[in-house]
Amino acid sequence: MTTSIKSADGPVVHILDDIQALAAARALAASFVKEASQRDRQRQLPLHELEQFSRSGLWGISVPRAYGGAGVSFATLAEVIATIAAADGSLGQIPQNHFYAVEILRVNGSETQKRFYFERILAGERFGNALAELGTRTSQERRTRLGKDGDGFRINGRKFYATGALYAHRIPVSVIDDDGVQQLAIVKRGAAGVNVIDDWSGFGQRTTGSGSVVLDNVRVEAEEVLPFQSAFERPTSLGPVAQLLHAAIDVGIARAALHDAAIFVRTRSRAWIDSKVERAIDDPLTVREFGDLAVRLAGAEALLELAGEAVDRAAAAPDADSVAAASIAVAEARVLTTEISLAAGSKLFELAGAQATLSEHNLDRHWRNARTHTLHDPVRWKYHAVGNYYLNHKNPPRHGAI
């Protein structure tokens, strides 16, 4: 049985457990897939779909049970994201940083902050992000400043890759304080001095809203700032959670590519003349290639589930060993999810034939989505981390990108 609570945008379903969460994701995915291609082709922002998504209660499923949430397993959370991403890659990615913010609050928030923000999340508020910046020496460097202003603070800086900020009620912003320590400030979307710019021009994940956020002397109160850097200075599940969600998005994109390839080959493709068969689905080499993709996808899905279980263990009992094991399990999953999402999106055209390249089918969106999303961090360093762990017994670095 589900119950409802109110938010400013309407009733929000209160999901109680993992089973309800998975069922809600499947129902939404069946709706989201219908116009996914059109949204991508026209870069039509999914405002209506995000309202449905929020009201479904899925954005609150990782809130701990002690604070009124379902506290679903991370394995379930990953499958929810993969299910939505299979319907629409952008809609699968938009809440990634929202769930990241929930996890930051869980591991680093004060009791007062947890009660305050978790209540609002369960009422349907969406959190975006303003973490990364352009023009820095590394992807981890931050220049946005948090300066003292009486009993509060002021923020000045510019962010990019701010996925979800365009649709958010609140925007967590990574900032550097006067002591050079990285903190996280949770800024109201409509606060004075906040300018969210819809300037994302990536050729994939086109409706994620991953553009710019400019912060011009934005006032935040002390209770709106929580520690961020310290979540990586000690063993926490934060990094593995972030990477697990990325892996789930790629699994969803791969599922969509393989699904659409199969439909096209069944209904439109022609058999190659040397196959001596009348239908493309009877071409033995085509069948073999589909089998290869299906096996690789099943392997990626299996590793995603194992990674989710490892993250669950690390979240329940975080220490150097459990967090390292979770990071490695997620890195292993990300290797396969990266490779199968790219392979499925590319092999689709080889198997479906020249007709599949026609713009009216928009099948290239799957490869574009995979290629864009998998650039978040390089898979070659996943291999290095995994190899170093097993060969040299070296734990991976704790910075959120492994």
From TrEMBL:
<dbReference type="Pfam" id="PF02771">
    <property type="entry name" value="Acyl-CoA_dh_N"/>
</dbReference>
<dbReference type="Pfam" id="PF08028">
    <property type="entry name" value="Acyl-CoA_dh_2"/>
</dbReference>
<dbReference type="InterPro" id="IPR013786">
    <property type="entry name" value="AcylCoA_DH/ox_N"/>
</dbReference>
<dbReference type="InterPro" id="IPR023922">
    <property type="entry name" value="S04_starv_induced_SfnB"/>
</dbReference>
<dbReference type="GO" id="GO:0016491">
    <property type="term" value="F:oxidoreductase activity"/>
</dbReference>
<feature type="domain" description="Acyl-CoA dehydrogenase C-terminal">
    <location>
        <begin position="244"/>
        <end position="377"/>
    </location>
</feature>
<keyword id="KW-0560">Oxidoreductase</keyword>
<dbReference type="InterPro" id="IPR050741">
    <property type="entry name" value="Acyl-CoA_dehydrogenase"/>
</dbReference>
<protein>
    <submittedName>
        <fullName>SfnB family sulfur acquisition oxidoreductase</fullName>
        <ecNumber>1.-.-.-</ecNumber>
    </submittedName>
</protein>
<dbReference type="InterPro" id="IPR036250">
    <property type="entry name" value="AcylCo_DH-like_C"/>
</dbReference>
<feature type="domain" description="Acyl-CoA dehydrogenase/oxidase N-terminal">
    <location>
        <begin position="22"/>
        <end position="125"/>
    </location>
</feature>
<comment type="similarity">
    <text>Belongs to the HpaH/HsaA monooxygenase family.</text>
</comment>
<dbReference type="InterPro" id="IPR046373">
    <property type="entry name" value="Acyl-CoA_Oxase/DH_mid-dom_sf"/>
</dbReference>
<dbReference type="InterPro" id="IPR013107">
    <property type="entry name" value="Acyl-CoA_DH_C"/>
</dbReference>
<dbReference type="InterPro" id="IPR037069">
    <property type="entry name" value="AcylCoA_DH/ox_N_sf"/>
</dbReference>
<dbReference type="InterPro" id="IPR009100">
    <property type="entry name" value="AcylCoA_DH/oxidase_NM_dom_sf"/>
</dbReference>
